[in-house]
Predict the structure.
Amino acid sequence: MNILYMMATICDRNQVQRFLAFYREFGITVTLITYGSGTTASEILDSFGLEAAQKAVLFLFVTDTEWKKIKSALEKQMKIDIPGSGIAFTVPVSSIGGKKQLRFLTEGREFEKGEESALKNTKYELVVVIANQGYTDMIMDAARKAHAAGGTVIHAKGTGMEQAKRFLGVSIAAEKEMIFMVVRREGKNAIMRAIMDTAGTDSKAGTVLFSLPVTETAGMRLSEGG
């Protein structure tokens, strides 16, 4: 089965350029970077001789074949199995806003879309919207008209955004906002379509969006409208 994954890498901030260079070896430059803080217990940090560090999260897109090669190289080249080096994991992508967006996220690398998702029978999906900064209200207004309950915004910086002109036909800014919305699966397409019609790649928002399967939820009852 040919599956596309969103891959996340969590590492110390001072290791970002090292990981970006590593992924470039695999032809991957379209990456989103956001920042946070580690919460590892101090006694664990002490045992490994580490200090509490500011973290970076890198989001990129890989096929199942690419992931197998990257995982092996992460272990051999980046020594990611050594505590404190970082972690990486993947989540299968359910759907993407359009063919141009697929080509942009995969940078035209060889990928033939198979089934919608390896977890296609899930009740909910996580819609992830990537847009230029300053257009969250526009996007959420469109999503709510299609019955989305709400979303969470994370500020991020994009790398490899020059690829947008090649694959999307437009230029998009490096400063990004990522909006996360958990929605019912049967309403997902309408919400994604509403966002693309209002704030798609041809608009100033320059939106790229995709969805990920959600296996379990808690606290969603009130947002289901009874």
